[in-house]
């Protein structure tokens, strides 16, 4: 990085109230998120500095609540992540655009003319229902706008569950015929590479990590980047482990200490939320590590069970969110009805949890934690009140 570029970057940071130390510390956290050593911090800082002179970005909205835009916009200030995103030349973001009417549309069109040079960030579901006559902007429908923008993009970053698979818009009965960007483009034969960043809403830190990865390694068409994606097109360094793997309440799960109702003593003691519907064991994201709002907190730490918004079809599969399931909304498999299949799956899952608990006790690991009980204390108290033994 040239000396004058280096000074220009830090002058911008200083104007936003961010010290060099804070910025380099943030670059270190991005390195960790990308699975890189701290020796990459200078390279990441240099890549961020180059960002303003690399690919411009356009942020389009499909069918959604704009929660992902809010997640980005509501980052407390001064926030290093927002400064990084400022450097990426997001030339058009319709929800936050200062320009209006033809001026705003002209700004987007100017980017679309730079074929192969821009990143398309897409928020919201692709709504194919109602004859595709939805989300009309400047005379074009949402489908027409995506068809126009996607083929010329160097890469597409689908932010939030709606953009990944349709999200809550796709929930049954799905009159909008909502789907995600990647399946929609694949059906049309458009081969622009897509990176999926689910959850509802997306974490801004993940957008930064992906774009920094692009700045370091080059276009998303590079094999080095595509090799980091799983079968769903999600970066493995973000979605490679379950929430349960890194949950700070996991020790309570291992010891069989669960919250069975909100407002209870068990909840006050921070016990595991699995029994009240937490989907952490089946949801792959690094929320417990990266957290939200400058790493202040996240859902489970705030006392709410994980609702599984990092999974596919999370609304239909995860609801009711505050209960453990007795069945699963699976499609028909041959002549076997969904409820029968779900009963087997749920039974296997329950047996797995029970076997895990027995194995933990047999291995002696549980002996180092809370004492093993034949009956939970809350149940014992209830039996005493009811006159039971």
Provide a concise account of the structure shown.
The protein has 389 residues and is α/β, with parallel strands linked by helices. Helices cover 42% and strands 7% of the residues. Strands 2-1-3-5-7 form a 5-stranded parallel sheet, with helices on both faces.
> Compute the gyration radius: what is it?
24 Å
Number of strands: 7
In CATH terms, the superfamily of the largest domain is NADH:ubiquinone oxidoreductase-like, 20kDa subunit
The number of helical segments is 19
Describe the structure.
With 389 residues, the chain is α/β, with parallel strands linked by helices. The protein folds into 2 domains: 3-237, NADH:ubiquinone oxidoreductase-like, 20kDa subunit (Rossmann fold, 3-Layer(aba) Sandwich); 243-385, Cytochrome-c3 hydrogenase, C-terminal domain (Cytochrome-c3 Hydrogenase, Chain A, domain 2). The protein has 19 helices and 7 strands. The protein has helices at 3-15, 20-33, 41-50, 67-73, 80-86, 101-112, 142-149, 161-165, 181-187, 204-217, 223-226, 236-239, 243-246, 250-254, 265-268, 287-290, 314-318, 338-363, 377-385, and strands at residues 57-61, 90-93, 119-123, 126-127, 155-159, 178-179, 194-197. Helix 2 crosses helix 3. The model is unreliable at 1-5 and 327-373 (pLDDT under 50).
């Amino acid at each position: 990085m040239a000396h004058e570029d280096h000074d220009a970057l830090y002058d911008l940071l200083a104007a936003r109230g961010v010290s060099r130390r804070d910025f380099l510390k943030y670059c270190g956290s991005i390195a960790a998120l990308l699975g890189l050593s701290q020796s990459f911090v200078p390279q990441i800082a240099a890549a961020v500095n180059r960002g303003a002179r690399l690919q411009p970005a356009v942020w389009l909205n499909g069918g959604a609540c704009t929660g992902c835009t809010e997640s980005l916009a509501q980052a407390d200030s001064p926030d290093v992540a927002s400064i990084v995103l400022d450097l990426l030349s997001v030339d058009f973001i319709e929800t936050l655009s200062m320009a209006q009417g033809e001026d705003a549309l002209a700004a987007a069109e100017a980017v679309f003319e730079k074929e192969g040079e821009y990143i398309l960030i897409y928020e919201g579901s692709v709504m194919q229902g109602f004859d595709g006559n939805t989300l009309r902007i400047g005379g074009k429908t949402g489908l027409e706008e995506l068809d126009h923008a996607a083929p010329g993009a160097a890469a597409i970053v689908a932010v939030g569950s709606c953009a990944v698979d349709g999200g809550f818009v796709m929930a049954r009965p799905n009159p909008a015929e909502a789907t995600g960007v990647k399946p929609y483009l694949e059906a049309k034969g458009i081969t622009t590479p897509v990176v999926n960043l689910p959850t509802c809403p997306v974490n801004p830190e993940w957008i930064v990590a992906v774009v920094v990865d692009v700045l370091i390694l080059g276009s998303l068409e590079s094999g080095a980047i595509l090799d980091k994606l799983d079968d769903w097109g999600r970066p493995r360094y973000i979605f490679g482990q379950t929430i349960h793997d890194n949950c700070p309440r996991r020790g309570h799960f291992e010891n069989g200490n669960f919250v069975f109702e909100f407002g209870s003593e068990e909840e006050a003691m921070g016990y595991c939320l699995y029994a009240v519907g937490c989907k952490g064991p089946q949801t792959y994201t690094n929320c417990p590590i990266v957290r939200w709002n400058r790493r202040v907190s996240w859902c489970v730490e705030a006392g709410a069970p994980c609702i599984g918004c990092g999974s596919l079809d999370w609304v239909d599969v995860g609801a009711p969110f505050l209960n453990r399931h007795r069945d699963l909304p699976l499609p028909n498999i041959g002549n076997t009805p969904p409820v029968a299949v779900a009963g087997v799956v749920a039974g296997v899952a329950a047996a797995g949890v029970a076997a895990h608990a027995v194995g933990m006790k047999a291995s002696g690991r549980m002996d180092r934690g809370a004492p093993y009980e034949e009956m939970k204390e809350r149940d014992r108290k209830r039996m005493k009140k009811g006159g039971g033994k």
